[in-house]
Amino acid sequence: xxxxxxxxxxxxxxxxSLRPRQLEEYIGQESVVANLRxxxxxxxxxxxxxDHVLISGPPGLGKTTLASxxxxxxxxxxxxxxxxxxxxxxxxxxxxxxxxxxxxxxxxEIHRLSRTVEEIMYPVMEDLSFDxxxxxxHNKGARTHRIPPFTLIGATTRAxxxxxxxxxxxxxxxxxxxxxxxxxMEIVGRSARILGYSIEPEGCRQIAxxxxxxxxxxxxxxxxxxxxxxxxxxxxxxxxxxxRALDRMQIDRRGLDRLDQKILEVxxxxxxxxxxxxxxxxxxxQEDPANLEEVYEPYLLAAGxxxxxxxxRQATRLxxxxxxxxxx
Length: 328
Ligand code: ADE
Hints:
Helix content: 40-55%
Number of helices: 14
Strand order of the largest sheet: 2-3-6-1-7
Radius of gyration: 23 Å
Structural class: alpha/beta
Low-confidence stretches: none
Bound molecules: adenine
Largest sheet: 5 strands, parallel
């Protein structure tokens, strides 16, 4: 499809322009990055590829960015695909055949690999061998393809959905966390510089405190705040302009958007703080359960607004207070 008409490709282009190009430019995730630096240096000194890496965490925290920085630091090429795209074993073999020694293969949403492909990955990850059975033709029988030494980087929003045989084959496990406000301010400031906007620290703080701890959301809000500032001829973007723009986009003071707010309203007002099953909640807010669980819920849990019990999701006292409702 023409890039101009492809929204996913456009979104990716917009994100790419703001991604750090070197590990030194990466802001936040301090302990993850510090450990990764050690593993990278050690692998480089031994002239070996980095061990396989599993990166987990909610969407928008920089999993893809980290994978591209690993390739950059190792001075190798990055090949990117995703779990659902590798449908058949042959798709995997085609990808593996494009790898040169030391390259990084990045599989996003690795928890969505089919069972068959996942099982073929085990010997690939362990012994660099791809076992294939040809059932037809004159050369039928078992074949083993040799794969050059490489690094697999898997990313997942659902660490719990990775089977233990797959997880145990990763030598490096990195868990990304929501970013702190000070880190997000730095990220917003850096993005504004790259995009050529001028923004005051209070403007950065408004966005940083209302982006659900997520750089991808911060960068998106920055562009929209800038639209309001431009139309109102407000230059530089100060705290008042940013705050007004965020209010107009219905982002509340905790950074919750309309869907987050709807989730809390349902838990507080309709279910009065009683536990609710995921599917019931998803139906009540008219959202896909997987999206609710992987995209929305992690922040509400981390912010202490929702808690998960064995009987379902439940609004906390903080959620009642946030909505100005009487605690039951
Ligand atoms: N842009 C998005 N995420 C970033 C990060 N972690 N560091 C620097 N710039 C970013």
